[in-house]
Amino acid sequence: MQTKFDKAYYDRFYRDPATRAVSPATAQRQSEFIAAYLRYLDVPIKRFVDIGCGVGNVLRALQKAFPRARGYGVEYSDYLCERYGWEKGSVSDYQPPHSTDLVLCNDVLGYLDDAACEQALRNLAQITTSALFLGVLTRQDLALCDERRTDSQQIARSLSWYQRRLKRNFVNVGGGLFLRKPLNVTVWNLDRLW
Fold first, then answer.
1. Residue 49: its pLDDT value, please?
2. Residue 1: its pLDDT value, please?
3. Residue 2 domain-assigned?
4. How many CB atoms are closer than 10 A to CB 95?
5. Is the pTM of this model over 0.85?
6. Which residues of the chain have pLDDT under 50?
7. What does the buried/exposed string (b/e) look like for 63-91 if buried means 16 or more CB atoms within 10 Å of the residue's CB?
8. 187, 38 in Cβ contact below 8 A?
9. Secondary structure (3-state) at 153
10. Distances from the Cα of 107 to the Cα of 45, 78, 113, 165, angstroms
11. What are phi and psi of 183, to 5 degrees?
12. Rounded Cα distance, 171 and 184, in Å
């Protein structure tokens, strides 16, 4: 069964306080972390794209954190594109019109089968010039999840499945942030997770 990304889906996982996966306050804290860590690492952000931006909480917060940067929202959901004006696109093949310093892809890859997910990871590596923020549910995370707030339609792959594919092009610097290889900034070895 394929998830239908319609109003009912976003009401449940984004808007209803009893079942939403992430609150607006959590999205704000996540954005503040991303911006602060990238500033700490001295990674300049002039353009960023949020692929699978949902209702846009992280996108809007990052635009405030990087006021001189140009942010774009990309969504697969026809409902959200119509409601918020996001650009229609898929993580598997979206190509931004300009180079993109920061790419965000949060809670998207779990909805793709293995072949499409591998294509999406290759595409993320191709379009990311500096930093990637990636959030994805792994099999090891299932025990931590609140079932009311987690879409059971997602495919939970193993952590090692993602690690093998990501480490070809990225260095994991923690908190969901990955820097594109070869590194253009200094990251101490203890700050690298694998």
1. 98
2. 37
3. no
4. 9
5. yes
6. 1
7. bebbeebebbbbbbbeebbeeeebeebbb
8. no
9. coil
10. 22, 17, 14, 17
11. -65, 140
12. 11
Are the CB atoms for 91 and 123 separated by under 8 Å?
A: yes
Question: Nearest to residue 136, comparing CAs of 88, 178, 77?
Answer: 178
Residue 140 Ramachandran class (φ > 0 left, ψ -120 to 50 alpha, else beta):
alpha
Give the per-residue pLDDT at 153: 72
What is the per-residue pLDDT for 60?
A: 94
Question: Is 159 within a domain?
Answer: yes
Q: What is the mean pLDDT of the chain?
A: 90
Residues 104 and 125: beta-carbon distance below 8 Å: no
73 within a domain of the structure (yes/no):
yes
- What backbone torsions phi and psi does residue 8 show, to the nearest 5 degrees? -60, -40
The CATH code of the domain that includes 180 is 3.40.50.150
